[in-house]
Design a protein that fits this description.
The complex is a heterodimer of chains A (about 425) and B (about 280).
Chain A (H helix, E strand, L loop, with lengths): L1 E5 L13 E4 L6 H6 L7 E4 L14 H8 L19 H15 L8 H16 L5 E2 L13 H16 L6 E8 L13 H10 L6 E7 L11 H16 L4 E5 L5 H6 L4 E4 L3 H4 L17 E4 L4 E4 L2 H8 L3 H4 L7 H7 L23 H19 L3 H26 L11 H11 L2
Parallel strand pairs in A: 1-2, 1-8, 2-3, 4-5, 5-6, 6-7, 7-8
Antiparallel strand pairs in A: 9-10
Helix pairs in contact in A: 2-3, 4-5, 6-7, 7-15, 14-15
Chain B lengths: L7 H11 L4 E10 L2 E8 L2 E8 L5 H14 L7 E9 L2 E9 L19 H20 L2 E2 L8 E3 L4 E3 L6 E2 L20 H4 L7 H17 L19 H4 L5 H10 L11 H8 L3
Classes of the chains: A alpha/beta (about 425), B alpha+beta (about 280).
């Protein structure tokens, strides 16, 4: 199952192939979630995002204001929304002004843990979520041995029993990539400690895995240790027999995790919804983006005119073509033999202009969702074979494309599929 | 300080003088890393009196006493009473456990002992797994499961020496580098000094115990240094007469990776009786 991370804009909800959504408190206030129609999806999850409790409110005011509207962050002095008194924009502004003073910068402690867990569970039930994700702090120290995570998990499980939760219960694994060193991957090493803490407990139906990055890279340029951690955790939890093993913010690498038994992957359209980097939450930054065409064949994003025009000129379209409902017209256009040759500039939804993103986003989401759906239908060995074939062929294709394009280079970003293949080889039986 | 265990008569005399009236001491049973054990009486009941060394963490012990007094599991030793005695000027915790006759499982490792039958292995496996699971429900890990800590009572097997068990929510009570447990029986993670162990660690130690009892050979030659770095011979190669499902289950208990050790263990041992 592919789950779409819902950011500020929910305009991609109906994209073909999307079977579920993840509501993100960092991008949506509780008031917005309560007042918006529930997404009509097979799965609706709310990630409590407690792992963002240590954000700096002075740098990340907008995001912290959203988070502060959820009761499990332990702030009870924030202004309540009253539609008779103010607009939502006015309320958002009031939240931002106050959050800088009120934001604790850490997760609740002691008795606050129980209150936070209950609030997170009750909110998910009120929002008619199909699963309950238990909140968990970010694991930032190896020496802690995931002890804080275990305390939150025990408290959350007790609260679920007390509240008679009927939805599947998911434990959160939220890992900061700074804690992942080579020794973490050893047998009975740190990652196995994290897995041990969860698998030793009864009453858990699945896990929800996020790995937060310390850097600010394109989702295709994520550090290798982050990829390894996702794959290692997905494989370990799948082997433990959970019904749901969900990766989020691994982007297309979620397909590799699917090969190792992950049952679902969540991602989004924009870079900040496809990766989890604390730097994404700063108020500064962002800016205007241009559309990139996702090619699954070479695991790359190609600037729709700059790159694709070169590719067409060098007769390489067959190496990168990728047809979905949303890219069909673009593929047809590019296939025109000309003269003049086809180009995205002739198709307004694909023209390489600022903020012209919707069609490229829909194509990316649809492509990954479709691939994920195909993979999960396969048995375990055919699934591994399919992902290996994809990684091997994309590596070869990319080498060929880059070579043929010389002296031109690609403006878009290319995944390190050879690195992904190494990770795959390390873990595949 | 608790007197040296090689002077039991002196110890007994010392303890007799220090005990409150409702306790009596009749003889000396054993000495361990955390204290000495005497045969005695509490009120009218025969008990094993364990005197803990003064360096034993009293807060931890107090919590365990409360918990074990409430646990009431047939395969976990029961606590009859607890107090403090002053020995040579030092206040030492004293716990009166139910006295279990029958001896511990080391008797099955003697050179002239008959090999354990499938039924005996299943009995030990199911009963001690049940005890371990009951402890874990309270988030307690025993940390020292071995043949010497399982008593073969008249009716069942009982896990004793829960003195070094600890609550997983009190990580600050274990000093860094202070690894409790017995070399050769500790899980790889326990041997590395991990503090917040789970039930999976006890399952490993129980696996070592069952393997040793079944094969009459320690899977790692009593060497903690080998655990996690070498794989023992498959139990089926040493006990071909046992069902592969049983030997396979015990082998799986010795997995290096905690999450790969079997869960619902008592139930699984019970199910193997049907084979």
């Amino acid at each position: 199952m592919y789950l779409l991370n819902l950011g500020h804009r929910w305009n991609l909800l109906g994209t073909e192939g999307v079977q579920g959504v993840v509501l993100l408190p960092s991008r949506n206030s509780l008031v917005k979630l309560q007042r918006s129609p529930r997404p009509d999806s097979q799965a609706v999850l709310l990630d409590p995002q407690l792992y963002l409790a240590s954000l700096n409110a002075a740098d990340c005011t907008k995001v912290c204001a959203n988070l502060a509207s959820f009761p499990w962050f332990g702030i009870d002095q924030m202004p309540a929304f009253d539609s008779g008194e103010q607009t939502r924009t006015q309320w958002n502004q009031a939240m931002r002004e106050q959050v800088i003073q009120q934001w604790p910068g850490q997760e609740p402690k002691d008795a606050g843990i129980d209150e936070a867990c209950r609030a997170a569970i009750e909110t998910q039930i009120q929002l008619a979520c199909t699963h309950v994700i238990l909140p968990s702090p970010l694991i930032t120290e190896r020496e802690d041995e995931a002890q804080r995570q275990a305390e939150w998990l025990d408290t959350g499980l007790l609260a679920c029993a007390d509240l008679d939760v009927s939805q599947p219960i998911l434990a959160t694994v939220a890992l900061y990539d700074g804690v992942i060193n080579d020794a973490a991957f050893e047998a009975a090493g740190f990652l196995d400690t994290v897995v041990d803490q969860i698998t030793a407990r009864e009453g858990i139906d699945g896990v929800y895995i996020v790995v937060a990055q310390s850097k600010f890279e394109h989702p295709f340029s994520t550090p290798t240790r982050t990829y390894r951690a996702y794959a290692h955790l997905a494989k370990a939890f799948a082997a433990a027999g959970y019904d749901s093993v969900i990766t989020n913010f691994a982007d297309a690498f979620g397909l590799v995790c699917t090969a190792f038994g992950a049952t679902a992957m969540a991602s989004g359209q924009s870079q900040s919804l496809r990766r989890l980097s604390v730097l994404d939450f700063r108020d500064a930054g962002g800016g205007l983006a241009i559309p990139y065409f996702y090619s699954h064949k070479i695991i790359a994003e190609l600037a729709t005119e700059t790159d694709l025009d070169n590719i067409v000129a060098k007769r390489l379209l067959r190496r990168v073509e990728d047809v979905t409902t949303y890219s069909q017209t673009l593929m047809t256009e590019l296939a025109k033999s000309g003269p003049p040759k086809g180009s995205a500039r002739n198709l307004p939804p694909w023209a390489e202009s600022q903020n012209n993103l919707t069609m490229a986003y829909r194509h990316l989401v649809c492509r990954l969702a479709t691939e994920q759906a195909k993979l999960v239908k396969l048995g375990s060995q055919p699934r591994l074979d399919a992902v290996r074939d994809w990684l091997e062929s994309s590596t070869a294709n990319m080498l060929f494309v880059k070579d043929r394009l010389k002296p031109e280079t690609l403006k878009g970003c290319v995944a390190s599929s050879d690195v992904w293949l190494n990770v795959f080889d390390e873990l595949s039986p | 300080m608790v007197p040296a265990p090689n002077a039991p008569n002196n110890l007994i005399a010392l303890l007799r003088a220090a005990l409150p009236a409702e306790f009596q001491v009749d003889g000396y049973l054993d000495a361990g890393g955390q204290g000495a054990v005497f045969l005695g009486r509490y009120q009218t009941q025969q008990v094993a009196l364990k005197v803990f060394a003064t360096n034993h963490d009293k807060r931890r012990l107090d919590r365990e006493i409360v918990l074990l007094q409430n646990l009431n599991h047939p395969n976990i030793v029961k606590i009859r009473a607890a107090t403090t005695v002053v020995l040579n000027g030092a206040a030492c915790p004293l716990v009166a456990y139910e006295y279990l006759a029958g001896g511990d499982l080391r008797k099955h490792l003697a050179a002239n002992a008959a090999p354990l039958t499938k039924e005996q292995i299943l009995d030990i496996g199911e009963e001690i797994a049940s005890a371990v699971e009951a402890l874990w429900l309270n988030r307690i890990v025993h940390r020292d499961i071995k043949p010497a800590n399982i008593v073969d009572s008249a009716t069942n097997h009982v896990l004793v020496d829960v003195g070094c068990a600890r609550h997983v929510d009190r990580s600050n009570l274990t000093l860094v580098g202070n690894v409790a447990g017995t070399p050769g029986y500790m899980s790889p993670e326990q041997g590395r000094g991990r503090r917040n162990l789970t039930i999976h660690s006890d399952i490993f130690s129980l696996g070592v115990t069952l393997y040793q009892l079944a094969a009459r050979r320690h899977p790692f030659q009593q060497n903690q240094g080998l655990i996690g770095f070498t794989s023992p011979a498959l139990l089926s190669s040493l006990r071909a007469d046992l069902p592969p499902t049983l030997t396979g289950l015990i082998d799986q208990m010795l997995s290096v990776v905690p999450a790969q050790r079997p869960s619902n263990l008592a139930f699984r041992f019970n199910q193997l009786r049907l084979i």
